[in-house]
Amino acid sequence: MTVVFTPDSWDQAATTFDAVQTSADAIWRILEATVVPFVSFSKVDIAIHTSGIKPRNTDIAALLFVANSRRAQESTKLTSTGAAYRATEDAATLGAGSLEAS
Amino acid sequence: MTSWVYLATGVSRPMITARSLSRNQAMWDSAVVFAEVATTQIDTAITALQNDNQGPATDSAIAALRGPDSARHAYQLIASAARSYADAHGRAALVLTQCLTEMDAVAKQTVDDLDAIAALDLGASLLAVALPQHRLSLAKATLQHLEQAAADELRQVYDFAVPTPPGTPDKLPTYADPEYGSVDPRIAALWDALEPAEQQAVLRAIVAEQLAAHGIDPANVPVSFPTYADRGDLQGQAGGDLWWGLVPSGQSIEFNSINIDQPGILNTAAHEVQHVVQDYALAEYNRTGPETLRQIEAGLIPDPFIKYGMSLAQVRALTMGSYESATSTADPNYPYYLAQPAESDARQAGRDLGTGMSYERLLDLMVASGVPIPDH
Fold it and tell me: Which of A90, B13, B40, B69 shows a CA-CA span of 20 to 30 A to A17?
């Protein structure tokens, strides 16, 4: 089995993963700036702003929370993987699966 | 002129916040793009890893990075959810527009029918009173049916679930009342480091800047920082000590000095300025004759309300609603208070400034106010 490793590539991948945070931050700002659409109908009938639309924004907030947490964990894994490769300097000594990113 | 039909029937013409809906749709469209960019960035990194590494450990790592528990998958879910929101807002706008068109048609038909009844020359007979009343009752029922149908349809439009992966928290920590928006945590930390006098100076700078941006001389709008005790009229009211800002006369702004240490007060500054701007716009609207308003509406003369950041239609919307007050979120009137165009518009202005403010922008404001930047 051919095993090729380039330690720096894992660090570079980690750097790219870190850069993802810029996009995630942009989503976060959008999330916070997005408001519940209000439609003021006659009081006697309905006010749509009370119909539970607003909490839905938190669904994406929660998703973003998860995505960002995982991204940070994955970035750390990538960095540590590169460091591990660099330390051994011998791919053959690395057991299959020993450097899994999760 | 059909607006009196709404008044006579007690049915409110739906206040369509087309700007709000369009803005939401555009923002969620942007969120889709950012989520897709995030996914692409991750794909780029994975591809580079594949090109430079081979072996079972690499395969395993890449499989995990692309798997269902990966960040990549979560960003994909965000893109999908954001797209759903954008679509929903777009469809909601259509529902509202259709509802408004139909309601206005009913109002116009009512006017026409009442004119026709008047032309019957029924004199002082009972019919002269009963027929118009009956016609208005019919109009009321139809208008209520239309708005109820639209409301039901809107609920359906927004009735969709966003898939969330395992481990998603039910509730996220926030650092501000979402109605007020929120601020960058770095801004919150910096704000916390300022002395009250420095916070006041920055708030004054924001107010002056925002007023000037709308063509209003800041010298005409005094800013003060009363304490709770100073506002005796609010004492005893639920939430009386919770108020952050007031525009008591439309010509001045008061910040509750108890709350200026909260970073959300930055939103409040823009919020209260917007109420002042609204007052100026409404004053000009009330001074403008009907013929001039008609010409503005027809596009024959430039819309003078643009300088306030509003269109004639938006200024007119401000005249709708009685600006009901609510002193706390527990107040039964609170949803209606929030829904009033004047309040919603001001809250949006607050969110635009507070949420949109960068850390560097606050530093600039501090420098402009003569406030030293603390070490932290």
Answer: A90
